[in-house]
Amino acid sequence: MRVLGVDPGLTRCGLGVVDGGTGRKVSCVAVDVVRTPVDASLANRLLGISESVEEWLDRYRPDAVAVERVFSQHNVRTVMGTAQAGGVVALAAARRGLPVVFHTPSEVKAAVTGSGRADKAQVTGMVTRLLGLVEAPSPADAADALALAICHLWREPMRQRLAEAEARAAELARKHRAKLAAAAKAAKTKGAAR
After folding, report:
1. 148, 139, 143, 140: which is closest to 110 by C-alpha?
2. In sequence order, which ranges of 61-139 are alpha helices (DSSP H)?
3. Strand 12-20 relative to strand 2-7: parallel, antiparallel, unpaired?
4. Helix 120-131 to helix 140-193 angle, to the nearest 10 degrees?
5. Who contacts 117 (Cβ-Cβ below 8 Å, separation ≥6)?
6. Rounded to two decimals, what is the model's pTM?
7. Which end of the chain is more exposed for a tag (fewer CB within 10 A), N or C?
8. 98 touches 62 (CB < 8 A)
């Protein structure tokens, strides 16, 4: 499976493509950071991100897209820009029929380092080690994008199995309720016939 990981942001938007093999084997396909000028209008900045993401989707043809979920920060303006950049990415993926999953920063940190409280240096170090990179991805947005892709590759199969199990359980419960209702109706009909 090939995953495009995206660490959204208006100034720097990290992009990383990772292939997953058997077990926990992962390999880096590409990594970069899209930058938009701070003095450009919001619409033009989002357009720049959109064009770059669309180019990556066409070039690398991922099977899924993993985006960092925006979490509450003190700076509302930063949160809004990050959310808008993430929305542009989700839209580009949806146009291609690709699944998009949003992962929280602590979920990504836990998947890659074993601790949801890991700092940027620890995440970058583990991403470098896991992917067997000669140099650490820089800036941190690039490493975060790769970490998102790795997180998705390692966690999504479990999520899918859990969703399938929940769907089977819901179907069994529906059938069981239907049988109970039919038995209750039959008992009521039998009692009325006496």
Report:
1. 148
2. 76-95, 105-113, 120-131
3. antiparallel
4. 90
5. 106, 109
6. 0.84
7. C
8. yes
41 contacts 172 by C-beta, under 8 angstroms: no
Amino acid at 16: G
Here the tokens at position 121 are: 């240096």
DSSP letters spanning 127-174: HHHHHT-SS--SSHHHHHHHHHHHHHHHHHHHHHHHHHHHHHHHHHHH
Residue 71 is inside which H or E element, if any? none
CA gap 122, 60 in Å, rounded: 27
**5, HSE (Cβ side, Cα atoms, 13 Å):** 34
Look up residue 194 and give its amino acid: R
4-63, pLDDT tens digit by residue? Answer: 999 999 999 999 999 998 888 999 999 999 999 999 999 999 999 999 999 999 999 999
Enzyme catalytic residues: 7, 68, 141
